[in-house]
Amino acid sequence: MKRLLIVTTISSTLRAFLLPFAYHFRAQGWQVDAMAQGVSNCNECKQAFDIVWEVEWSRNPLDPKNLLAAPLIIQELMAQEKYDIVHVHTPVAAFVTRYALKDLSKQGKCKVIYTAHGFHFHRGGQLLKNIVFLGLEKLAGLWTDYLVVINRDDESAAKQYHILPSERVRYMPGIGVNLEHYSPQAVAEGEVVRVREELGLSPENPLLLSVAEFIPRKHHRDVIQAFAKLSRPKVHLAFAGRGPLLEEMQLLATDMGVKNQVHFLGRRDDIPTLMRASVATILVSEQEGLPRSVMESLSLEIPVIGTRIRGTQELLEGGSGLLVEVGDIQGIAEAINWVLDHPKDARWIGKSGRERIAAYDLKHILKLHEALYSKVMEEVRDVEQFSNNKFYRTVR
Description:
Blueprint: E1 3-10, H1 11-27, E2 31-37, H2 43-48, E3 52-54, H3 70-81, E4 85-89, H4 91-100, H5 102-106, E5 111-116, H6 127-141, E6 146-149, H7 152-160, E7 169-171, H8 189-198, E8 207-211, H9 220-230, E9 236-240, H10 246-255, E10 262-264, H11 271-276, E11 280-283, H12 292-299, E12 304-307, H13 312-316, E13 321-324, H14 329-341, H15 343-356, H16 362-395
Parallel strand pairs: 1-2, 1-4, 2-3, 4-5, 5-6, 6-7, 8-9, 8-11, 9-10, 11-12, 12-13
Helix pairs in contact: 3-4, 9-14
């Protein structure tokens, strides 16, 4: 049986993006296990994976504590389970795991694949931060067999800076979005009515939606400040997500005088319904890889207001959304006003988004992973065959 271990920093990454990969490859006869912080408390993860392994590390990629206990746990697990492929995601898990397995990888005893969900060095990033994170990526590249990038900017950067040899860099258009689930036809009109009633909205109340974790790089503050500039009391704004800045943003909405128009919904399992209930979604981050919420919104034919950054710009090019500069509060307000004042044009933009998102379908991404894993397993077999032949020659 082929054995795969998927590693992420926290279990919510597994739950949000990687459960379909577990089900898919288990159905093909693989043993698929997972390692993440908090995974033992994730029921969805325990159902999707054969075995889940708990590990503790800091989400801060520069925290030295990450290199103390976690590598020993990973090495012991590898000695016990002898995985053929270890596929790592997210910066902390990716770096620490590759560091822990660097000797085994060099010996060909396991193959390590790293999916970069957006490099932490990028155009527009702080110079010192870019230098540090580029250095870390180049160092960890020495311990990596294949690098998967999910946007064209990162593909160019990986090759420009020789993080890995070009033939070991694979571009895949994202981590996949289920176009059957995120489809206008899959969302019942009754559910849209229900969620709008939950928020106390009448047909005269347009809804804007932002789906993002409450962390600094998502720039929720910009959205609230832009919304307050509108002075349109019938318009409502909803945030789906949790995070350390949630309470601060709730206070900001109160201070800006829009408390009664802004809804903080927390974690939601009905994102497709919320999106279909909205006239537009908003994501004004300063950094993304290839934002899932943008892909979901386009799949549901809902226009997007996004920032002109790597990933988001790639998805919205060709008129699939409205782009503004990072931190441009006035620009965000003007984009919202345009959507509200041009409903027919906005709906047309949404429909065009559905047409261009086909390449990001989960089925397509799974096939690309199949091809990559097949290539890697061929290399594993070649190493085993070489080792067996070498042993035969020695004993003979």
